[in-house]
Design a protein that fits this description.
Helices cover 19% and strands 34% of the residues. It is α+β, with helices and mostly antiparallel strands. A six-stranded antiparallel sheet has the order 1-2-3-4-5-6, covered by helices on one side.
C-alpha cells in the first residue's frame, strides 16, 4: 500500500511454537514514511524489557509494538486481530497527517 508517500511492509513466517512465540507465527508489520523511516511496527523479532514495577514478576514479552521511538507490549490474539489493530492504527496516524 502507498498513500502520500507512506508505505507498508508485511513479513510473516510459520515457526514451531516455542516459549517466545507460542502461537507459531513470527511476524513484522510496518508503516514507513516517504523517507523510509518506520513510524509504526508490530513484531515479535526480539524480546523487550518489561517496565519495572515494584515486586512484579518479570515477563519477557516478544509480541510488541513500535510507535516512533516508543516500544510497548502487544497481546497477540490472532493473525486477524493483529491485522485489524495494525490497520486501525495506520488509519489514525494518516488521519492526523
Amino acid at each position: 500500500m502507498e498513500k502520500g508517500g507512506y508505505w507498508t511492509k508485511f513479513e510473516a513466517w510459520r515457526v514451531n511454537p516455542n516459549e517466545q512465540i507460542p502461537h507459531g507465527v513470527k511476524y513484522s508489520i510496518t508503516l514507513h514514511d516517504k523517507h523510509n523511516k518506520r513510524i509504526l511496527g508490530y513484531d515479535n523479532a526480539h524480546a523487550i524489557k518489561p517496565k519495572r514495577r515494584n515486586f512484579a514478576a518479570k515477563k519477557k514479552t516478544w509480541d510488541h509494538k513500535h510507535k516512533m521511538e516508543n516500544v510497548e507490549d502487544y497481546e497477540f490474539e490472532s493473525a486477524g486481530k493483529l491485522l485489524e489493530d495494525f490497520w486501525n492504527e495506520v488509519e489514525n496516524i494518516l488521519a492526523m497527517k
